[in-house]
Amino acid sequence: MAEDIKQGESFEFQAEIKKLLNILSHSLYTHKEVFLRELISNASDALTKMRYYSLSNPDYEGKDLPLEIHIDVDEKNKILTISDTGIGMTRDEVVQNVGTIAKSGSLEFIANLSEQARKDSNIIGQFGVGFYSVFMVADEVRIRTRSYNKDEPACEWHSDGTGKYFLNPVEKEKRGTDIVVHLKEDEKEYTDKSRIQSIIKKYSNFVSFPIMVCGERANQITAIWKEPKKNITDEQYNEFYKFISNTEDTPLFRLHTSAEAPIQFSSILYCPSMNYETYGFKKLEHGLQLYSNKILIQSDCKMLLPEYLRFIRGVVDSADIPLNISRETFQDNRMIQKMKGILVKQIITLLQELDKNEKEKYETFWRQFGRILKEGVHFDFENRDPLAQLLRFNSSQCADASGLVSLKEYVGRMKPEQKEIYYITAVNRDTIEKSPYLEIFRKKEVEVLYLTDPNDEFILSGLHEFEQKPIRSADQANLDLLKDGDKKIVDVSEEPQNYEEIFKHLLKTVKVTLADRVMDVKESSRLVDSPCCLVNPDGVPSVHVQKLIQMMDSNYKISKKIMEINRKNRMIQNLSRMNENPSCQPLIEKIVHQLFENALMQDGVVFDPTSMVPRLNELMEELTKAVLGEGKKIII
Ligand code: ADP
Ligand code: MG
């Protein structure tokens, strides 16, 4: 619908954009030249959309226009103009697309980046704030644009990149968009033709539309994925990677393949050398470029790879994909599903080979992307086994927190009598190593996997077993390892008289005292030094995981545990003796509650200090009295 544009209508930028512009003009980007990459990428997007629209709609503005990008300069007035014959924008679209940040969270993300990371021009391309980067070099920008929609008048947007922008009606004959950049005084270099050409070579060489700089073709459109591998140099591969991933790093590895059956397609896939998600805790947008016989149909096709491979960049080209496939039908398209299956298998095979032949490189990969890849064990049932083999964990056998162990290695060095694979979960290695659950494993020299990523336990417990060995959490009550544990650990010679009997009494007292705070109280066969610990009944997730569930659901109650008591511990032995004397009961009760809460704290469950602190004070009072000989003398 046509709309009248009031002369000189002025608008305030969304507050987010003002902040963004401020950040951009002060700290972002060491390479300002990337603004050109961003403008060309927008032009290319607009052209791709136009081509896509034209495939199924006969009636639109400027039917005969070639799909091209033109860059022209006015050296005298320091003006650079980037024009495209893309889809253009209506007045409302300009307000919508250029006046607001569409991708929510982008600004927040950038504002939270460290100073160093902000300067990294690799990062900006990932977060969809490309257009505004032009204000690093411009003190005024005009957008003249005319939509493919015949009924819409052309319109002009202009701004100096501070608080406001203006909209005006404008005469524009051709469909598409001109970005007119008035360069700042000291940014004259961007009117230099050879400087522009070299920037295009560097970042935009593979844009699949002609880029004409002052009438001369500046990019080569080579579909390198269609070439035989031997014709392509490493440099070309890397250049292409930089182009499609909008970064300047070199990929960790690449995969150039073509398939003939069941469907014909060629692809080049790359694994970046770093994981940008680790900067910002949020999921990256992902997607491969999808071509149909060298014609780009979608630059962010998410359907070609599962979420857990979202870090992979690349192109896929298949003549079997219809040019006018709509976004909605991608999901149901059998070809796409098949290609996806093949691509996933190819990537997994490559990772397996890396794992086998270049262990160090695989570990480098794992440190960057392991946390994403492992989601696959959970979600991709079909490839679960090979993915499980690719998993890595830290373990009690590693010298420090950086060591990595595979499940295969673990199984390979299991003790002959060991039947289960054991893991323990906590926030970090230090905490795990202090855990009482580990005591028996140390004593028996059984390896334990150390899980420090919150997802690990979900993944391992979902896996249930590996090479027919059940996977168990070390804090479970009935571990195979404990079957014959007690006899070996307990050295009866050091025990007090009739210990068997008085220890049993103590267990009863503890159970009565704690009542419904615990599920049961038992003699422990796993503890060596600690007086007690809390273990989980079978089938209940570890406390660590329960705490995560609680963070998401505040009504969730951490399940009750079984308290295990170490009969060998000196304090427990003393308590057993005191327990035989009725006058000690009040003190024993306090100690038992305190022991229980100590064990909870050891599991990282924070307890209400208002009841604990007075109790601790009372206990300390008893202690000081005992030391000064003022307490009740009890003969036991
Ligand atoms: P992104 O490209 O990641 O969406 P940008 O800040 O680069 O973010 O651009 C914002 C939006 O402005 C684009 O999504 C698009 O809708 C619109 N836009 C920018 N340049 C053009 C252009 N040359 N032709 C048509 N639309 C454009
Ligand atoms: Mg953009």
Automatic annotation (TrEMBL):
Molecular function in Gene Ontology: ATP binding; ATP hydrolysis activity; ATP-dependent protein folding chaperone; unfolded protein binding
Chain segments carrying region A: 1-327
Compartment(s) where it occurs, according to its Swiss-Prot or TrEMBL record: Cytoplasm
Main subcellular localisation: cytoplasm
Keyword Cytoplasm attributed: yes
Statement: the UniProt record of this protein carries the keyword Nucleotide-binding: yes
UniProt keyword terms in alphabetical order: ATP-binding, Chaperone, Cytoplasm, Nucleotide-binding, Stress response
Domain Histidine kinase/HSP90-like ATPase: 31-187
C: annotated segments: 548-636
A cellular component term, taken from the record's GO annotations: cytoplasm
Binding site for ATP: 38, 42, 84, 89, 97, 103-105, 126-131, 177, 327
SMART domains in the cross-refs: HATPase_c
Protein function: Molecular chaperone. Has ATPase activity.
Xref: PANTHER family: HEAT SHOCK PROTEIN 90 FAMILY MEMBER (PTHR11528)
Recorded family membership: Belongs to the heat shock protein 90 family.
Subunit structure: Homodimer.
Name under which the protein is recorded: Chaperone protein HtpG
Organism per entry: Candidatus Brocadia fulgida
Gene: htpG
